[in-house]
Specification:
Layout lengths: L3 E2 L18 H44 L6 H20 L28 H15 L7 H5 L1 H25 L1 H5 L3 H5 L1 H8 L5 E3 L9 E3 L25 H11 L2 H8 L11 H5 L6 H14 L17 H17 L3 H14 L14 H18 L6
Antiparallel strand pairs: 2-3
Length: 388
């Protein structure tokens, strides 16, 4: 099964021993375990190399500035910082990947595109991403000249990669044990993740497999995506309400301390600058929920680096994201109560101060009841005597 991400540099560790009586099947299992851990170690090396290169580039840039060579103007610095923040915001709130990468910027807007047709085919999905991109970018970056410029495409795509890398590190190594209520060792090696979380991650063994390990991961029958009322099958009343998903979003936009606050039953409040305050995030989006659902499955998968398709698990994360996004957008568009509840729960947990402006607020039953009660109070007040 196939993907790739980051885990500690450790020796492969699993319960497999070889002797003269070892069967070919046992040998294959042990070899598979080594393969999983080797992939993790290789991914970790690549990640460290990337971070080292980033540091060296920053130092080189600093030296250039100090020497007065090709120093950026204030306007260029502001522009680059803006693009960086927009790219980071896109990964957190819109999509984990752009299916056409930098080519998305050169796509022409289809005047006949309708959001209702977004998931019909690849063209619709690309137009949907382009629509999201244009909504994200400020007017000064939407001109034909800007959209065609190599610097915008290059920087935006590079910064998306940086945010995915930061996301992977925070979720699997920094906050993972708290988010998933497990030990750091449980998430450290692919073989251990696969052993502990496979069933909760929706693994379905093939009928008649006779224990040979063949099977596939379900899209919807996944314990990690449902709350504790889950009974082994998709349930619209509990889908996307697993506290793990909320802790993932909190870790990404509010910081590690927010996860600890949630575990302690305390409100999530900003402490210093967080991605939420830096990027001006005030409500949950469908892309954020779909992204966190995909990230939850990736963190506990045997895959290494966060990619659109798992190199070990063969999970098509891009396809999962599209499917979850379609469900959420369809539910919002048709005003389905269970989908509105999802947004209400997320906003109340992550953005309590602005929860009443969230995407699910318009159909909140509890708000309607409060409005009715308030109307009765003021009607009663109107019946009171007037003082002469």
């Amino acid at each position: 099964m196939p993907s790739n991400a980051s885990s500690p540099l450790q020796e492969p560790n699993f319960s497999g021993s070889i002797d003269m009586n070892s069967t070919p099947r046992t040998l294959r299992k042990i070899a598979y375990g080594f393969q999983l851990d080797a992939n993790d170690i290789r991914a970790e090396n690549n990640e460290l190399k990337r971070k080292l290169a980033d540091l060296e580039n920053q130092q080189a840039g600093s030296k250039k500035k100090n020497s007065g060579a090709t120093e950026e103007t204030d306007e260029e610095q502001d522009r680059n910082e803006l693009v960086k923040n927009l790219a980071h915001k896109s990964v957190l709130m819109c999509w984990l990947w752009l299916r056409m990468g930098a080519k998305t910027f050169s796509e022409q807007v289809d005047p006949e595109y309708s959001p209702l047709d977004r998931f019909d085919n690849t063209k619709g999905k690309v137009q949907g991403e382009l629509s999201d991109l244009l909504e994200l970018l400020p007017p000064q970056l939407q001109s034909a000249e800007c959209m065609a410029s190599s610097w915008l495409r290059r920087q935006f795509i590079e910064e998306m990669g940086v945010q995915r890398s930061n996301t992977a590190y925070r979720l699997r190594r920094q906050c993972g044990p708290s988010i998933f209520n497990c030990s750091a060792q449980d998430l450290a090696l692919a073989i251990q993740r696969d052993k502990l979380f496979r069933e909760r991650n929706g693994w379905l063994e093939s009928a008649g497999s006779e224990g040979d390990g063949s099977g596939e991961y379900s899209t919807w029958d996944v314990a990690l995506l449902h709350d504790d009322t889950y009974q082994g099958k998709f349930d619209r009343k509990s889908i996307f309400l697993n506290p793990i998903l909320l802790r993932i979003f909190a870790a990404l936009v509010r910081g590690p301390s927010a996860v600890e606050a949630m575990l302690a039953g305390l409100p999530v409040v900003a402490k210093g600058e967080t991605m939420a305050t830096k990027l001006g995030l005030t409500r949950t989006t469908a892309g954020a929920i779909a992204g966190c659902a995909v990230l939850a499955r990736w963190v506990v998968s045997p895959d290494g680096t966060l990619q659109s398709k798992g190199l070990i698990s063969s999970i098509n994360y891009q396809k999962l994201f599209d499917t979850y996004l379609k469900y959420l957008l369809t539910g919002l568009d048709t005003k389905k109560a269970t989908v509105n509840k999802i947004f209400q729960v997320w906003d109340q947990a992550i953005f309590p101060a602005t929860a009443d402006t969230g995407l699910g607020a318009g159909c909140a039953g509890s708000n309607a009841e409060q409005d009715e009660a308030e109307a009765e109070v003021f009607a009663d007040l109107a019946d009171d005597e007037t003082v002469e």
